[in-house]
UniProtKB/TrEMBL annotation, chain A:
Function: Flavin transferase that catalyzes the transfer of the FMN moiety of FAD and its covalent binding to the hydroxyl group of a threonine residue in a target flavoprotein.
GO MF entries: metal ion binding; transferase activity
EC assignment: 2.7.1.180
Keyword entries, A-Z: Cell inner membrane, Cell membrane, FAD, Flavoprotein, Lipoprotein, Magnesium, Membrane, Metal-binding, Transferase, Transmembrane, Transmembrane helix
UniProt similarity note: Belongs to the ApbE family.
Keyword check for Electron transport: no
Native organism: Caproiciproducens galactitolivorans
Binding positions (Mg(2+)): 179, 295, 299
Name listed for the protein in its UniProt record: FAD:protein FMN transferase
Domain of life: Bacteria
TrEMBL record, chain B:
The name this protein goes by in its record: Uncharacterized protein
Organism: Caproiciproducens galactitolivorans
InterPro entries attached to this UniProt entry: NusG_2_sf
Pfam families given in the database record: NusG_II
Amino acid sequence: MYKEKKLAYLLFAVLIVVIAVLACILIKSNQKPVSYECTNYAMGTYVQQTVYGKNSQQAAKAAAQKIGELENLISWRRSDSDITKLNQASGSDWVSIDPKTAAILQKSLDVADKSYGAFDPTILPVSSLWDFGGENQHLPSKKEIQKYLKYVNYKELRVNTQESTASLKRHYMAVDLGAVGKGAACDEAVAAYEQAGADSGIIAVGGSIGVFGTKKDGTPWNIAVRDPHSSETQSASLGAIDLRSGYVSTSGTYEKYFTKNGVTYHHLLNPKTGYPENNSLVSVTVVCDNGALSDALSTACFVLGREKGAELLKKYNAGGIFITTDDKIYLTKNMENTFTLSDRKYSLVKSGV
Amino acid sequence: MILKKKDLFLIAFFLCLAAVLLLCFNKNAGTGIAVVERNGTELYRFDLGKQKGTQVIDLGGEYHVKLLVEPGAISFQHSDCHDQICVRTGKLSKPGQAAVCLPAKISVRITEGQKTIDAFTG
C-alpha cells in the first residue's frame, strides 16, 4: 500500500517536470514571430525588408510593388514618369501628375523653403553634369556649371496639390527627386505593412530606413549608423539608434564620389555653387516621423552645416547626428538618449540644440 | 498518508529539476553576437544563432589573421603572431567571452544576442 503511494508521488513529480518542459517549449514557439525577409533592387539601391506577423509575406510583396510604382512616378530616368513629363514641359505648361508625386514635390518644396535653398529639388541641370555614380561621371568645367546653375531655383517650381498639377517656370529647368525618393519609398512600405495587417516590420532602401509597429520583445529597433571610414562592402557601425517609430536617413560623402587630380568630389552638391559642399561634415543622419522628410532633411542639413542644420531640424521636430571629418559626433538634444556610440575612435559632443 | 522525509526529498528533487530545465530553455534563447574589431573599430558582427554553415573570414593584414565562424561559435583559425594566444583561446560561444590577437590588434568578443542590428543607415 505504502509502495503504491510512493509510486504515485513519484509519477506526480515526473508529470510536473514534463509539464514544465512542455510549457517552456510552447511559450518559446509562441514567442517566435512569423517573419518574412526579402531583398530586391529598386531606386538604384538594395531594398531589404523584414516583416513580422501572419501576413508578413503578403505585406512585403505589397511594399515592393508600391516602391516599384513610386519609382515609375518620380524617377527622372523613367521616360514616362511624372517627373520626366514635368521636366519635358519646363517653361511651357502645367502638367497633371499623380497625387503621390504632388505630395512629395510639396514636401520637397517645404524643405527647400525652410532650408533657404540648401536643399533644392530642381538641382538636375547641375547634378546631371556631374553624373555621380553614372557612366558619364566627371568634373564639369566652371563654365558649364555657371551656365546651368541659373536653372536651379526651387522658387520656380510650382505645385498644386489640390489639382495634382505642377510646372517649371523656365525652359531647361528640371527636377531630381533622388534626395527624397528612398525616404518616400520607406513611407510607401510602412503604409503597405499597415494595410496588409502585418504586426511589425522594417524596411531599408539604401541608407533610408522606416519601421512599423513594435518588435515582439518590446525592445526598440536597433539601427546601426555606418562608420564613414568603413568601405561599402564591409560596412562597420560607429554606434546605433534606438528607434521606437519613424524614419532614419543618412547623407554621407562616401556614398557617391570620384577623385580627379588628387581632389575628391562627392555627390552632395550645394545648389547655390553647383559644387560639392565641403564644410567639415562627413555625414548627417536624420530621425523624423516621415520618410521623405528625413531623406530631404539629411541632404539639407549636410549642405547647411552643423549649426544651421540643427536649427532646421527643430522646425520639423526631427533629430540629427552630425559626423565631422575630425571624427567628432554632434547630437541634437532629442538624440542624446537614443544614440549609443560604440566606436571609441569617435568622440561624442552633445550640442544641446 | 503522511509523507516521509525521503518522499519530500524526491519531490523537491523533481521540482528543482523542472526549475533547472526552465532556466536552460531560457538561456538557450540568448545566443550571442560576435563582434570583431581592429584597433577598436568594428569590422564585423555575426549573429552566431543565425549562422548557417562554417565561414572563414580572412582579415589579412601583417599577421594574416583568419577567423572561423560556425553555427553558435567563432574562433581565431590562424594568425602569424608569435604567441598564438588568440588561436589557442579556441571557440567562443557565450556572451562575455573574448579573444584578442594583441600584435594584430584584433579582438573578437561575444555580446548578448538580444541587441541584433535591425538595419544599417549610411
